[in-house]
Amino acid sequence: MQYDPIKRSLGNIFNSTPFLRITFYRLLDLLMLRSWHIRRELRILKRKGFNPKHIADAGSGFGQYVFYLSKKFPDTRITGLDIKQEQVDDCNSFFSSIGQHDKVSFEYADLTTLEVSETYDLILSVDVMEHIEDDRTVFKRFYTGLKPEGVLLISTPSDQGGSDVHHEHEDSFIDEHVREGYGVDEIDEKLREAGFSDIHVRYSYGKPGRISWKLSMKYPILLANASKLFMLILPLYYLVVYPICFILNLADVRKEHPTGTGLIVRCKK
Prior knowledge:
With about 270 residues, the protein is α/β, with parallel strands linked by helices. The chain has helices at about 5-15, 20-30, 35-45, 65-70, 85-95, 135-145, 185-195, 205-225, 230-255; strands at about 55-60, 75-80, 105-110, 120-125, 145-155, 195-205, 260-269. It is globular, with a radius of gyration of 18 Å.
């Protein structure tokens, strides 16, 4: 299953004007459960008095989380890091067009060779680590790049079916992944090896989240890959389905899950 072409197609549609792109960001925040969990963690950090001066979005992609961070922390410098130069150029152009070039910038970066030292107060990494084979090196690079007491916040699939893989010989629903997902003990061990402490790992995408993901992401992507005509009726589909997904997402964020297909990880340098 190819996920990136669908994202590119939607991005091209919504990238025609700044208004449409901002609308797209906000729709993604409403729709994508991982965004709900990340925003919850950021709210908790802010309530505790966390006031980062410099944030890195490691694997910034289309710029969705950078936009949210720029509103959540309006006095903070934000750097988006991505390995796709076209994404970097596109995001720099967009954020410049909305007058945020003074505090928001995007840079080409291979996270396995990232060379920054004590630069960031917060590194955000949303659905990135499952795409990187040499994750131990990246975690060490993140540790070096953070200032003392800096925070690393990660969203990634778990090994409980996080890439929609439930059997040993089953293929991932999203075939860009290099691993099916992380175990709790595995990611804890790798982060400790890199130097991190105060590591908190919790499951996301519990039972309500898994149902929501199928309704809001899996089935539409399967249909869009089968026929581009489905893209035309996508708004009607979400008009019917989204109220159900909203309730399911709310339930997933508010509940602690004994297991789940996603992991939310927060740790400190």
